[in-house]
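Homework help board

Subject: predicted structure for assignment chain

Our instructor gave us this sequence and asked us to write out the predicted structure in token form, then describe one feature. I got the tokens but I'm not sure how to describe them. Can anyone check?
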Amino acid sequence: MSFSSAVVFLWLASARNRLRVQLQRLRRPRYLLGALVGLGYIYFFFLRRLDFSPGMRQVPDGVRLFAELSLVSSALVTVFSSWTLGPDRPSLTFSESEVVRLFPAPVTRRALLHYKLVRGWMGAGVGALFATLFVGRLVGSTPGFFFVGAWLSLGTLYLHTTAASFVRTRLSTWGTRGQVLRWSVAGLVLGAVVLAGFSALDSHPFPRTVGTPGVLRNWMQALLATPELSIVLWPGRLLVAPALARSSGDFVSALFPVGVLLVAHYAWVRAAAVPFEESAVEQAETRTRERAQRGEGAPSRGVSLASRKTPFRLSARGRPEVALVWKNLIIRRRMAGGMLSVLAALLVGTLVVATMGEVRLFTDTRRVLGPMALALAAMLAVVGPSAFRMDLRMDLPKLDLLRALPLAGWQVVGAELAASALVLGALQLGLLAVGLVSGPGAEDPWLLAWWWPGGLALVMVLPSVALAGLFVQNAAVVLFPSWVPADRAGGSRGIEALGQRLVTLMGSLVVSLLGLLPAMVVGSLVGFVLAGALDVWAAPIAGAAASAVLLGEVVVGVFWLGRAFEHLDLSEDRS
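My token output:
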């Protein structure tokens, strides 16, 4: 049997066995329900909207401009990063099972290289499929054209990064001379791009009438059409042209250059190939070790808990629950990436609005800062409990150790809940403070009258709502541990796992809304009684009353959940 036949056999056998395992899991009700929910979600939100007929022809110029600029910039950044970021070693990665199966076999290096290139192309196809489902219809092209174009573009970028890693590996063997050569070329390219940008800005300066709708979009179109930036953006535009083609003729004409570029990159990879077996073995062992460390709850990539800044000094004497809070607060930095993602998404959304002509938002920063801060604080009350997981969900693989501690169940539950509540509440209060100080952003008399009273009411209510949501999420861990995804490597995957997460999320939202009803009733009654005497200033008092009800519910729930935690049965299989 040839190597290619053996590889195809392994792929088909692995897929067949994986499918068999997935079908066997469906015999259990929780997996069957999860699979049905997951399939329904995928169909109604993605597949039902997928249409391979000609897409939307009348797409706003601002939306298409932003889509083209985003795709081109992503491609160029990927190309530049492949030469400047990361270690100087081959980028080909093999799993530990691939190392065990393929490396001792009588297989040539070229065959292993083709094996990884095919795997990379398959991954590019999956990425192109998801890109088509999410953004393909938004840019006005036919989904079929977008899929094929995205597949070719991602495949070409994969070949480029592979060839660049080979060249960097060769240059690293030259010592200082190779590094000077690589960084000199990268510096010259970056300098040329900067000079092109300044030259384009000199010929098309930033408009002073930026507050007029459409001016910023027209300026960006003229700026990108300058000869200097056209040369800089030409490689990226060449790559994304098939995906953004509006007609069959445009698609065919854009397909040939990308095909030539793809073949040239394949030839480059073959010519620049270097020995990669030793590096692949080291990377496979490193990933396996890090995966095992994450599964055990230990930090990976050489980061020790001792190197992280502690939130406060832990005394040798005091309440034992404080140690659990201290431990969970140390892990709070893991949320920094999520917050940066939220801020990045906010900035991108703002850029989209500006590109589409709504640039009046930038005429006064305070006018948008206040409402935006309050909106983010309210949003955190809903999504924060699912995002901040420094509690029982993070310690789900270690529940047996938590039960072995000489603490009552309510102490463990309360301490685990406190860390996420403190971080989330502090973030909400900070956003609310920024929003209240910045002002409503409009000179409306009604809004000005309600801004501070309503803001203080939110100060009372929103942290309590977030705390209630956190309690529901942690209650699911104790009452239904097999339905909650653990923060560890090797967790459940597949459509049934997606469905389980959706069912858990919807159940948590329903329970949270039911828990909010008593607080809403009490707050409404208090506000109605005091409105005649205090007018708008009855809102903070009503908010405080509603918050007190929520806090009381959480306190009672912690004691009740503590008893359930003490009798928790961990023998159920979580596979």
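Reply (TA_rk): Your tokens look well-formed. For the description, you could write something like this. The chain has a mean pLDDT of 80. That's the kind of observation they're looking for.
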